[in-house]
Design goal:
six-stranded antiparallel sheet, QueA-like, 10 helices, ten-stranded mixed sheet, about 25% helix, single chain, about 400 residues
Length: about 400
């Protein structure tokens, strides 16, 4: 059992050489024709992604993240020709994400500001023509918060902020792609099951799924279930400290339906496989929330998991009991949606409680995502990544996929 934090993990142990030409700049025309590296019982094999249904047990439960990437990058052009970028990170007022997107006329957001020194005037303005009518968005800096700004946006009350972003914003691509977004990215950088607006980055393991994949999964009787974790810009934050002890993990908003908790309880002794690291973090966070509900009846219904919480003490509570505690609380409070946030960091020495496998992409060197993978398969990640490089696999967001099982 874990009794200490994984403080001594050196991030340099999770480095590897990734040549620029191995980073996929665009997805394949047919998403499910991507390669799929499979690690099962210690053996590595190469498949194609559309073969996934034949590789999974019939009694598997697949968990997906149905978050939707928003057009979070706004470019304002000043009279001088200078361009200022405002990158919407998360809502500030109102701070509930769905309410913020539905807001009409005014709202405050926490944003990164590019070329901030050129922002001399009080307000920036951007106008587009929609249905023959001009729509104007104004941005005003309120205060600085760390390396970001609180920006007050005002616009025509006829439209929601989600509609305004859709008309004026640009979809944010990962910085390591080293290219500007183009029209096709609006579809390419979105899963086909994206539903809940709120992310600034896609849960990229899901980009490989097609209608054919879902049809084949359904035909085999493999169950699918959906959670929501809104991916923030922190997902691209590299570990810059020598050990992960000093690294501050980003916090992300999550929502989980009551029906998902019921599915997890029904499948807890079978194969629960998460599609993407965001789904992994969500599902494992549920366990620790259930533990808190069991240990302290005064724990809030909303979930809030801190970075090192799973490492602070020895826990022997079975996953099923933790999930049943969540379900019992939701039924008591008569709620069908569990909301909250998680800052959990999953790194070597972590013991997976609910997740038995994951479908994921190949991740950046020295990233927390690589730590999460290593927590499941140990040093075998090095062998998998070497195999991928030797066999022309494509890396990162638009690259190929992996299937890892415990």
């Amino acid at each position: 059992m874990m009794t200490v934090k994984p403080l001594d993990i050196a991030i340099n142990d999770f480095d590897y050489n990734l040549p620029e030409d191995r980073i996929a700049k665009f997805p394949l025309e047919e998403r499910d024709k991507a390669k799929l590296l499979v690690l099962r019982e210690g053996a590595i094999s190469e498949n194609l992604f559309f073969e996934l249904p034949s590789l999974l047990d019939r009694d598997s439960l697949l968990i997906y993240n149905d978050t939707k990437v928003v057009h979070a990058r706004l470019f304002f052009t000043k009279d001088t020709g200078s361009i200022i970028e405002v990158f919407c990170l998360e809502p500030f007022e109102p701070n509930e994400i769905q309410i913020a997107f539905a807001q009409r006329g005014e709202g405050k957001w926490k944003c990164f500001v590019g070329n901030n020194k050129k922002w001399k005037q009080d307000k920036l303005c951007k106008t587009v023509i929609y249905n023959g009518r001009p729509i104007t968005l104004k941005a005003e800096r309120i205060k600085q918060v760390d390396n970001a700004w609180i920006i007050n946006f005002t616009w025509d009350k006829e439209y929601s902020f989600a509609e305004v972003l859709g008309l004026m914003g640009v979809i944010p691509l990962p910085p390591y792609l080293n290219r500007e977004a183009i029209d096709r990215d609006n579809d390419d950088y979105q899963t086909i099951y994206a539903n809940q607006e709120g992310s600034v980055a896609a849960p990229t393991a899901g980009l490989h799924f097609t209608e054919r994949t879902f049809s084949d999964l359904n035909s085999k009787g493999i169950k699918s279930s959906f959670v929501t974790l809104h991916v923030g810009a922190g997902t691209f934050k590299p570990v810059t400290t020598d050990s992960i002890a000093e690294h501050i993990m980003h916090t992300e908003k999550i929502t989980v339906k009551k029906s998902v908790i019921e599915d997890l309880i029904n499948y807890f002794d079978k194969k629960i496989i998460c599609v993407g690291t965001t789904s992994v973090r969500t599902i494992e966070s549920l366990y620790w929330h259930g533990v808190k509900l069991i240990e302290n009846k005064d724990t809030e219904t909303d979930i809030d998991i801190l970075q090192w919480e799973p490492y602070t003490k020895e826990i022997n509570i079975l996953p099923k009991y933790a999930l049943e505690a969540i379900l019992e609380r939701m039924e008591k409070d008569k709620v069908d949606l569990l909301c909250g946030q998680t800052q959990i960091i999953i790194a070597p020495s972590y013991k997976y409680r609910i997740v038995k496998g994951m479908i994921t992409n190949f991740h950046q060197p020295k990233s927390t995502l690589l730590l999460l993978v290593s927590a499941m398969i140990g040093d075998k990640w090095k062998e998998c990544y070497n195999f991928a490089k030797e066999n022309d696999f494509r890396f990162l967001s638009f690259g190929d996929a992996c299937l890892f099982e415990q």
